[in-house]
Design goal:
The structure holds two protein chains of two kinds. Chain A is built from eight helices and ten strands. By secondary structure, chain A is of the alpha+beta class. Chain A has a four-stranded mixed beta sheet with strand order 8-1-10-9. In chain A, strands 2-3 form a two-stranded antiparallel sheet. A two-stranded antiparallel sheet of chain A has the order 4-5. Chain B is about 75% helix and about 0% strand. In chain B, helix 2 packs antiparallel against helix 4. Classes of the chains: A alpha+beta, B mainly alpha.
């Protein structure tokens, strides 16, 4: 009995080994014969590129209206659900009531002491008490979320953008625990009933995956600036942090800026002019 | 050997059917979660892990606690544990089954779970957690089964079980260390960002695991003819005693560091748990209950008259078990998320469906435990008789 099963195991193992050895050769043969295996990866000539994308937010220029406009355009163009949206009962019957604590947001306004809790100060400059501080993903140089992700569904591109593969995400939410800026949201439910108008240029998400700001990678690929920068009336500048000649570097040279919770060593790429 | 599990008394079958009913009810709720998402839970954007992960963390400890009978018996030839090592190993198996189920029910996209193996990510602690948990489960199944089979046939266990047994010891330490590393390596979570987290996890594991084992020994004495031995239970009680004291000591170290250094990001979490924070104090009664249970349990175990009291001991063990469950379960997980990194306070409480699914996972674990213990005790009865 023992001998027999041992022999059959060796047989299977042997066949498997042959298969493994042969497969590269077979792949080679197949790509050689029909020549279509190599897809041409085209790159848009107009695409905006950078060594490390970064963002400067001039808090002096952000008003309530601008902040709202920015959130609106961002969420609209990325099909981010709005739980306050009234659900179309015909299209989505039996939609259950929402839990607003499970909301999804990519860029939103916070008060200073929430955006910068480590800079708590009882004698804080008066104007800071009412200023809207826009917060979003910091596209950290040392991103804890990238490190935490067990499937590399969250990864860092060469140009510094921290981005997600919504189809690989298993929804373990380790990245949400890892993010020290609360920038990530989880789809606790199907978001589609809460999207007023679906924009076909960007995918909608399914339930059970995490999402966050992608610095409008889809816009940059088309050669256009991120939506937030476009509607910000000059309050948000996006550019290459590693290019000494860039607009963003000129701003950083000229103004005193702060980043959120810098002491953690995450190296956020979002700067605030205060 | 498996045939033993299908021959049992009326009580045995009633218990099995009860467990199956709980599992069935929980499964129906899980189907709803599977279809509609984790919206049916009390988790939120700010508290993104809840009851499932809390129970997972606690049960990793129970699984690791099994090693507290393996070390004395196999490393120090402590003969009194001969009868109960198998119980420790099978408890670890049942606890690990629950751990893995808790991970699965917590996933937003459970059908993609194998992505963890398809895209191995050596920088992610979850990757290592998957490796050690499955490794430890495998080791305990193989060891437990082979050793029991040998006992039944009255022969020596195969020679290769020995190295596996030795290997299972670092694995036991490993599962809980890596589980602590899931939390203590995250920069923005002050409550978890402490080097004592892994030692604290191990201390509470070595208390909760053996405490539960003592309770199980009582049940075995009541329902089977197999006697695990009072002396072995007494030794276990001493292990529980020192482990729970170590756990309380580590907790005090944490409290001192946090409050004396006075760093707000670290202090806020403990303050929320112990006294309430900005008017939010849902967990305060829980946390104090846990601390009082653990502290009283420790006192009852230190004093020999109380520890030797056969009527009191199971209650003391239950106190420690539930105290550790609160401390490491809800307290540890919710405490880490409240307040959020932006210092917003969003409180968390599990919903009814969440509790139903949790109970079903526990029922599954208890089913596995019942079947394995049925095997173990029956074989031991046979051999003796």
């Amino acid at each position: 009995m023992m001998k027999k099963s041992r022999r059959s195991f060796l047989k299977v193992a042997g066949i498997a080994a042959i298969g493994l050895g042969a497969s590269p050769a077979m792949n080679f043969a197949s790509s050689d014969s029909d020549g279509t295996a190599l897809a041409v990866k085209g790159k848009n000539e107009q695409a905006l590129t950078a060594h490390r994308w970064g963002m400067v937010i001039d808090t002096n220029k952000i008003t309530e209206e601008i902040a709202e406009k920015i959130t609106e355009i961002c969420h609209k163009t990325h099909n981010v659900p709005d739980f306050k949206h009234e659900v179309d009962a015909e299209k989505y019957p039996k939609t259950r009531s929402v839990n607003h604590k499970q909301e999804i947001k990519w860029i939103w306004k916070e008060e200073f002491h929430y955006a910068f809790p480590e800079k708590e100060d009882e004698y804080l400059t008066e104007k800071f008490h009412d200023l809207p501080f826009l917060v979003t993903c910091n596209h950290c140089k040392n991103a804890p979320c990238v490190q935490a992700c067990p499937t590399q569904a969250t990864f860092k591109r060469e140009d510094g953008i921290v981005i997600m593969d919504f189809h690989r995400c298993i929804g373990c939410r380790f990245c949400m625990a890892a993010c020290p800026y609360g920038s990530r949201s989880f789809n606790f439910r199907d978001p589609r009933p809460f999207i007023a108008e679906t924009i076909p240029d960007f995918p909608t998400r399914s339930k059970g995956v995490v999402e966050k700001c992608n610095l409008c990678a889809e816009q940059l690929a088309k050669g256009e600036l991120p939506h937030c920068a476009q509607v910000s009336e000059g309050a948000i500048v996006v550019g290459d942090l590693e290019d000494p000649e860039s607009d963003i570097r000129a701003l950083l040279k000229e103004h005193f800026t702060i980043r959120r919770n810098e002491s953690l060593g995450t190296e956020p790429s979002v700067y605030y002019i205060v | 050997m498996l045939e033993i599990a299908i021959k049992g008394s009326k009580n045995y079958w009633s218990w099995i059917i009860f467990l199956l009913l709980v599992m069935g009810a929980g499964f129906i709720v899980y189907v709803d979660q599977f279809m509609n998402g984790l919206m049916i839970t009390g988790m939120s954007r700010d508290v993104s892990w809840g009851f499932y992960i809390a129970n997972f963390t606690f049960l990793v400890g129970v699984a690791a606690g099994g090693v507290m009978v393996v070390i004395p018996y196999y490393l120090h030839n402590y003969e009194k544990f001969h009868r109960i090592t198998i119980l420790g190993e099978f408890l670890a198996v049942a606890a690990l089954v629950m751990c893995l189920l808790f991970i699965i029910v917590d996933l937003g996209q459970p059908t993609r779970a194998f992505n963890v193996m398809l895209y191995p990510s050596p920088k992610s602690m979850l990757f290592y957690d998957m490796l050690v948990l499955n490794g430890y489960l495998f080791l305990n199944i193989v060891i437990g089964w082979k050793v029991l089979e040998a006992e039944r046939n009255q022969v020596e266990p195969p020679f290769w079980t020995k190295p596996l047994i030795y290997l299972s010891i670092p694995f036991a330490i490993g599962i809980h260390t890596v589980t602590a590393y899931l939390y203590c390596g995250l920069p923005g979570r002050g409550y978890w960002l402490t080097a004592i987290l892994a030692p604290r996890f191990l201390a509470s594991a070595f208390a909760a695991g053996p405490a539960f084992l003592i309770i199980l020994c009582y049940l075995i004495r009541k329902f089977t003819k197999f006697d695990p031995g009072w002396e072995a239970m007494q030794t276990l009680a001493k292990i529980v005693c020192w482990a729970i004291i170590a756990n309380l000591f580590f907790f005090l170290c944490e409290v001192f560091t946090v409050y004396y250094s006075n760093i707000p990001g670290h202090k806020a979490h403990l303050t929320y748990l112990l006294f309430g924070y900005h008017g939010y104090h849902a967990l305060v009664p829980w946390m104090w209950t846990g601390l009082i249970l653990m502290f009283t349990g420790a006192i009852f175990l230190v004093i020999p008259q109380f520890r030797n009291n056969k009527t009191l001991l199971p209650f003391t063990c239950a106190m420690i078990f539930f105290g550790a469950w609160i401390d490491k379960g809800l307290g540890m997980i919710s405490g880490g998320f409240v307040p959020s990194p932006l210092h917003h306070v969003t409180e968390y409480a599990p919903t009814k469906p969440e509790i139903m699914i949790t109970l079903a996972v526990y029922a599954t674990g208890f089913l596995v435990l019942t079947l394995l213990y049925k095997l173990a005790t029956q074989v031991k009865e046979e051999v003796r008789g």
